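Prompt: I keep going back and forth on a fold encoding question. Comparing notes only helps if you start from a blank page. Show me how you would write down a chain together with its backbone fold. Please set it down just below, with no commentary around it:
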Amino acid sequence: MKRRSPRRRRTRRRPRAIALNPPPTAEARKPHPAPKAGDVVELAIKDLGNFEYDQEKGGNIPDDVKRLAGATVRLRGFMIPMDQAENITQFALVPSLFACCFGQPPQIQHTVVVNCPKGKAVGYSPDELLVEGTLKVEEKKDEGSVVSVFEMQVISVKLAPR
């Protein structure tokens, strides 16, 4: 059995803080091209909400993002049920579950409220999903505070291919 030298002391290194990518500034963000009729726009949630947003004041959704309203979009993300654990009719789609559960919740422009058609529901899945539907871009307020910027009327919810 090997013994360590008593003079050499092993120290633990502290983990480095991981810098989260802040949303791009107005000068650095890439505007979304106007969607073409009949096309499905495939985006990452953070790319959809690639702008700084003041949740308290609101009113600063860029015009190119507003033009995505009514388009069919396909997004990858993770489900956070909003109404119940089974037979889910509404859920938040977020870029990462780990950030929500163990860190800072996603910014409002990085959350999409997904609504199932009347009479339809989905089961909970902790895995990454591929969600397709019609996007609504609108500030929704509850008691004076903005609670969502993006909503989607879902057409399809399935497990994302790995």
